[in-house]
Structure to design on (83 residues):
C-alpha cells in the first residue's frame, strides 16, 4: 500500500511530492495523531495494516489460481466515474 504525506498550508492540504494519481482521485485521510485518540473498540494501526496485507495476499493467490482476473484501469475508471 502506498502512502503520501500532506501538510495543511493556508487551510489546504498540500503534498510535498508530485503523484501520478489520476485527476479526480479521492483519498481518505487520517490525522497521524488520530491513533492516540482511538477508542478501545478500534483496531490499532498495525492490526489494520496487517489485515490489508493479508487481504492483498489473498487476492494475489486467487489471481494466481485463476479464480480472479485483472481489469484494465480504463475499464475500472469508466465503471466508477462514467457509468
Amino acid at each position: 500500500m502506498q502512502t503520501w504525506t500532506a501538510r495543511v498550508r493556508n487551510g489546504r492540504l498540500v503534498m510535498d511530492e508530485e503523484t501520478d494519481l489520476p485527476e479526480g482521485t479521492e483519498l481518505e485521510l487520517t490525522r497521524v495523531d488520530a491513533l492516540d485518540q482511538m477508542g478501545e473498540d478500534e483496531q490499532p494501526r498495525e492490526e489494520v495494516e496487517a489485515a490489508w496485507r493479508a487481504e492483498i495476499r489473498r487476492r494475489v493467490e486467487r489471481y494466481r489460481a485463476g479464480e480472479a482476473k485483472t481489469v484494465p484501469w480504463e475499464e475500472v475508471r469508466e465503471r466508477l466515474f462514467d457509468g
